[in-house]
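Reminder to self: keep the SMILES exactly as supplied, no canonicalising. Ligand is pyridoxal-5'-phosphate.
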Amino acid sequence: MLDLDRLRADTPGTDTVLHFNNAGAALPPQPVLDAQVQHLKREAAIGGYEAAAEAEERLQHTYNAIARMLGCDADEVALVENATRAWDMAFYAMPFTEGDRILTSRAAYASNHIACLQVAEQTGAAVEVVPSDASGQVDVAALRSMMDDHVALIALTHVPTNGGLVNPAAEVGKIAAEAGVPYLLDACQSAGQMPLPVDEIGCTMLSATGRKYLRGPRGTGFLYVQRDWIERLEPPLLDLHAATWTAPDAYEIHPDARRFETWENHVAGQVALGVAVDYALDRGLDAIFERNQHLARTLRRELDRLGGVTVHDQGRVRCGITTFSTEQAGAADLKAALRERNVNVSVSTPHSTRLDAEARALPDLIRASVHYYNTDEEIERMVAAVADALQP
Ligand SMILES: Cc1ncc(COP(=O)(O)O)c(C=O)c1O
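Structure tokens returned for the bound complex:
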């Protein structure tokens, strides 16, 4: 059971704002904030390199905590700046050639799909979109029928940026494993709001960010690469941390996942990311997921009751993200009106998820994303603020 009073007491932002932008950046809990600020203070007091040396164990703990969350080994984890960089370091390391097929889904995030298009142009590989089924999730049977010897990668977005859909990641993993095809899971929007056991999911690579449902600092992210794949992936960028300069004309790439990292980093953020992962694991990812699903169901039901409001979420399984549009106002105007009422939401435009937006003819959407520290009473106040903002 989640102790809501304690959780809210731990979250200073809950005193000041109605935060429904958790899929943008969630409010950090006090221990995460403390870890970050304390490290910055040490940097100021004794020097940045010296503070990093002092924090070595805490930094190693971040790898261990992520490994515990994913059920993998710490040396299969790379710490990077954000989810996009994590995804790119894996994707651009794949040795695509002409005739290869990259299978993706309608929920694809813009940055990932842009990278697919660029690599297709450069190598002659083909990017193919697996259709969605009637529920909106990736059509697993269609994926199965698309598999052949030319499939070089399955790239799936677990939870899209523009809605509550949770794609059946483990069913896709079974197909990938049967075919022996690498499987890159974008878990940017799912990390921190549901369990992510990589062995059960069957992904070979997984990318995520710190600031969203994990409630970690901005500018943090991580990449998991399954051991058998690490040495088969040559990172597109190398530095003296990812590789060692062994002779004037030679270098060796790090044998573990650190080959995907860079030397210079936001150490305070990385230390605090470990605290954020611990915090999520201590609350329990099953309990967090259950509560987020409850809150989002309530929010969708209450929004549905408002005249002129259309909720757009799809999927057999749904999470804490809710998107909606209204007849009365454009998304940007409504977001601004809600901000004036001290309610945080964000806007999802078709540019972020073009495949899905075009398939469903979606307008700009308001994205209202709950997290476990939100309450039913906050949802009531948020929906009342929407109703108020939509008044003629
Ligand atoms: C599905 C998905 N993937 C990737 C990203 C990119 O994450 P980041 O901004 O940490 O690079 C986002 C950001 O919203 C996202 O929604």
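Points to follow up:
The chain has two domains: 4-28+284-390, 31-282.
Residues 31-282 form a domain with the Aspartate Aminotransferase; domain 2 fold (CATH 3.40.640.10).
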